[in-house]
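Quick note —
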Amino acid sequence: MIVGQGIAALLAAAGLLVTAIPAAHADTVPASATSEVKPGAETETPSLVTDLNEPVAATGNAADAARGHLKAKKSRYHIADTSAEDLTSVGTTTDKGGKETVRLQQKYKGVEVLGGQYMVRMTKKDGKRAVTGTSGNYFTQLKLDSVTPKVTEKTAIERAVGAVTTQFGGGLLRAPAKGEKQAVAEFTGTAGDVTILPQGTGVLTRHITVTGTDPADGSPVRQEVYIDAHSGFPVMQYSGIKTFGATGTATGATEGVAAPADASTAAADQLVVKGSGVRYNGQKVDINLYKDTKGLLQMIDYSKRAADDSPYAGPMIATYDARGREAGSASGVWPTGVTYFQPATPDLGEEYTNSGAVDAHWAAGKVYDYYRNHFGRKGLDGKDGYIYSLVGVVQRGQPYNNAFWDGQKMVYGQGGGDYRTFSADTDVVGHEMTHGVVEHTANLVYAGQSGAMNEAIADYFGNAIDLEANGQSMDDPDAGLLGEDLCTTAGPRECALRDLDDGATTSKNFIGVTYSGDNGGVHLNSTIFSGALWDLREDLGAELADQIVYRALSAYMTPLDGFTEGRAAVIAAAKELGSTKAQLAIVKRSFDAHGIVPGWEKALGVDTDTLITKVNVGGTGVGAAGGKYAVSRSNEDGSEPYSVWLGNTSGKGQPQLVSANNGDYNVYANTDGKTVVWADYSSQGIFIMARPVGGGLAKRIDGIGSDVNSLVVDGDWVAYTALNPQYGVTNVRYVNMKTGEYGLVDDGRPYNISGLPSIKDGKIAYAKVAPDANGNMKVGVEVLDAATHTRTTMPASDDAMGIGQTAITDDGVFWIEDDDATDTGKAAVRRANLDGSNPVTVTPEAGEGSLYAYSLTASDDAVSISTVPPATWWANDTMMKLYQIAPDGKGGAQRVSCNRGEQTFGAADEGRRVLWLDGTTGYTNLVKRDRPAGGC
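Predicted structure written out below.
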C-alpha cells in the first residue's frame, strides 16, 4: 500500500505498504524573523527553509559552498558530517538569472541512502554567494552497526528474480497453445549498489534490477528490487519503466550512437539536411535530417547545435526504426541491429507518417526547444546528452498500445486497430521526454505518491508542450486532454486517457493500491496533483505557472516527496519567483481545491471493521480459520523486520506476537485456527516455521533456498508454493509436521508446474500444468491425499486454458477456470465434490453474473472472489475488489465491501466472514466484514 509521505510511502515487497511517517518537530533555529523553517519527517533536519539571505564563501565550487553553509549552521540543520564523502554532489544547476541549486546526496558510512537528498539554493553576483534557502530529506535517525551485507550478491539476485517471477506469475496457471512451448518467466537480475532504505534506523539492502518479459502478455519488465542485506527478503519492488498508459544520456546502444564518421571536419550547421514530412494530423512540417558519408539520409537532427559547436558535442536527436521489434527487447537495452530511419529523399513519404517517425522526430525537437527556450535547460539531462526515440515496437507481434521512458530513451508502440502509433500525439512525446527531465532533477521514485507526482509532472509539461507546439489555447474545451489524438475512430474526449481539467479529481478520489496495481497508483492518483497544477496554469497564465512548476521540480523536490511535500515545493517556488500575495493565494487555492492539504489522508472513509491499522505488510498476505487470523507486520515506522501476529477475527482482544523478533523477515503467515505457519527469510536460507495457537515454541519444519509463497496449513499438514529457479516455474511442496514426511504434489515429474494450493484434512488441492498422453501441455485441478498419496482429478474442461486459485472445504473443491481467450479476462468459478463428482458452475465465464475472477477463498458457507478487470486506463473500478456468493452460485454475487481502495489477499473465516488487506484509508489495514455490503 502506497501512502503517506517519505520512505513509508514506498517500502513494500512486491505489494503492500503501510504507514505515513508523522512529522517530527525538529529543534530548528530560524535564520531570521522573516524566514520560514518547516520540520522534516522522522529527522531533525528541516524539510524546507526559505527566505534566507546568508552570505557564504564564494571561493571554490558551488557544492563546497553549499556544504560549508550546512556546516556553519549545524544547529539548524543537524547534519553531523558535511564532508564530500558523506554529502556527495549530484550536480549543480544554474538558471538564466544566475541562481545556483546544489543537490547533495546523503551517504551513511559510504553507502548511499535512498531518497536522502538535500538542496541548497544560492545566488551568485559580483563574485559573492548568498544562500536563499534549503530543502529536501536528510535522515538523521540512521544508526547501523555495519554496512557489510550478510547476503551474497548471488543470493540477492536469486531472491530478486524469484520475487519478480512470483509477482508476474499472475492469478492463473496457463497452458501454452498446441505446438507452443510453455510460457515461463525468464528474468535476469543485475546487481547495483548496496543501498540504505531510510526506514527507522535504516535498512541495509542490495539493489537489484530485474529485466525480462511478462510471460502473460509479452510486455517489457524492468523491476527495481531491494533485498534486505541481512535476511535476503525483498523489502521493496517497483517498476523502472515509466509508461504513458496503464500497463538521460543513453548508454549501451551498439549502433548509431557516436557522431557520424565524416562529422569530424564539418561545421555543426553543415550536418543538417532540410526535409519535410506529414504528421498524422495532416500537417506538413519541416524535418531535420543528416546525410552520412555514403550519401544516405538518416533521421538525426543536429539543428539544435550552435554553429561553432564541436561536431561531437551538443544536442543530437535521433529517431530509430524499431518496427516489428518486441517491446520487451527495447526496455533498458537496444534491440540488436536497430538503425535510424533512413528515408530515400528529404521529402518523407506516407510510410514515415504511418510509422509515427515524422511525429516522433518533429515532436522531440519541439520538446527540446520548449525546455531550452523557457528554462534554459540543455536537453533531458541538462547537459545536452543525445536524445533517442525508438518507434514502432510490438508486443508478441501485435500492436503495443503504449509508450515508455526506460531511463535511456523513449519507446513508442506501433499501435493498430483503434490506436495510432503512440508518437502520434505530441503530449505523449512530451510526457515521456519529461520523465527524462524528472529523472535528472528530482528523480521522483516511480511508486506511490512520489510516482504519481512523477506522472503528474510528465502530464503537466507534456500537455503544456502539446498546446504550445500545436498553437492550442488553454481556453479550448479539449485543452486538458492527454492522448486525445491517438485513436483512429474515436473523438478526442472518448480517446483521451486522462483529462487535467476534469474539475472533479481530488484527494477524496485517492485510491490505495498495491505495487502490483499500477505501481502503487502512479497513473490512478496522478490527476489529483496534475489537476491542481492545471488549475494553477489556468489562473496564473502559462508562462508564470510553468516557471513555478519547473523551479519546484528542479530546485525543491526530492525523490521520496509525496503530495503534501509537492504542494510545499510549488508554493515555495512561487514565493521565490516573486509571486504577489494574490498569486500565492491562487497557488494555494489550486491545491486546496484538489484536497491536497496537510492530513488529507484522514478524510478517507470505509464500511469495514478494522482489526489492525498500519499493518506494514509487504505483500505477504493474511490467513484465517477457526476464528483466528495470522498476518505479518512490523512496527509502525516499518523499521523492524516483519514478525507474525495472531489475533481473533471477531476483533476481540489484542493480537499476539508468535514469531521470534529475530531480525529475519517472518512472512506469508497462515493458520487453521490451531497452528500458525510462516516462512522465515534469513541469510542462511528460507525456513518454514510452525507454532501452536495455544502457545509453545516455534518449530522449524522445512527449509528451502528459493523463493516461496502461498503457505497453507490444516492439522498436521503444511503445503506451499516454491520457485524452481533453474526453470522459472513453481511446484507445490508439502510436509507433515508430526512425522517429517515431505514431497512434491506431482512427485517432481519433469515438465510439470503446480501452484495455488489449498488444504483440508490432509488433502491438498492445487492447479497444475502437465503434458497429456500426446505430449500437449494441459491445465487442470488435482487433489492429493498426502497420507495415502492418491490423486483425484477435478472435472475441469478439456478446453481450459488457465486454472486459478483453489479452495478446499469439508465437502468440496473450488477453482477458477478460464476456457475462453476472447473474453478479455473473465473466468468462471467451478466447484466439485471431493471425489470429483457433481460439478457446478458457481459463476459463469460469460454473460450475466460473470466476473473477472482472479483469486478466491472459501468457507463451507460462502465463496469470496477477488476480481481484477482488464484496464487500458486506471480507475477505482479497475482495482481488485471482493465479491461473495453462495457455494452453489444461487442468488448471484454481491460486493463484500464498497471501499474505494484495493482489496487484496481475501481470507475466509467461519460463516460468511472474510478478512483482507485494504488500502482505502491511505494505509494498509487488516479489515473484515461478517456479511456482504451488497450493491455499491
